[in-house]
Amino acid sequence: MIESFVHLPRHAFSARDAARAGDVWRAFQEIAVEASTAAGWPPSRYRDEGVAFIVRSMSVVHAREALYGERLSGRTWVSRMRREMFSTREVRITSERGPLAAARQEWVHVAAVDNVLEPARGSRALLDAFAPETAPEGDDSPALAAIVTPIAAHAPHVLELDAFYTAMDPLDHANHPAYVDWSDEALSRALAAAGLAPIALAPVAEEATFKSGVTGGERARVETSARGLTAGNHLVCDHRIVAGGRACASVTTVRRLIDRPIESLVRAITG
User: Fold this and answer.
1) pTM
2) pLDDT one-digit tens code per residue, 21-31
3) 231: burial class by Cβ within 10 Å (0-12, 13-18, 19+)?
């Protein structure tokens, strides 16, 4: 298990001085990269060997919002490795106030074949570096709360945007936290169109599955549907992200509003 300090930059925070969900996802990614580097696998080694780990899916639960200036720490470990190519990594962030957010990441090891990344078994050196570890007692993987009050099917709220060339990641496609940014942007625009303040949106949990990367210059379409409310009266939404006729990702967000009934967000999305 690797432990490290976590730094969220100033631009990760909204006008409420609360960290955005997508930037918490970026912190999780940085913790994983630092752990990989400590295990002898910095980004340069992956490039030299023509391999990489890419995220297949990720689940995150937020215990509370990160506030600007508070000290954060992270810890991470690999909990499972399957078929020498599918890795499950657990990541935790804590603050002086206690647990802040927990993530479970499903990674696939890939290698370049004719300039195309394809699933491939890891080398013995890589597998030895990322041997699975047992989770601390009582530290369970994050899971999204169940829906207890379904919302009737409705036409999705649609947001279209162009992916920035200057925002591509080292594999030259949109980095996985961007899909959370786009999902929250869709919710924020629905709130703004309804005359409500987008700043009231606060993260509770997310889950995402990735199928195809959005690349620079592509127009991404975010189709958002409200699915229902949890026992905590938080809204669960599905976001289908497509580009170039491809289904690129599916994201589920669980959100609450600060000082405002959640029904306001429901109405903003369902019309």
Assistant:
1) 0.96
2) 999 999 999 99
3) exposed
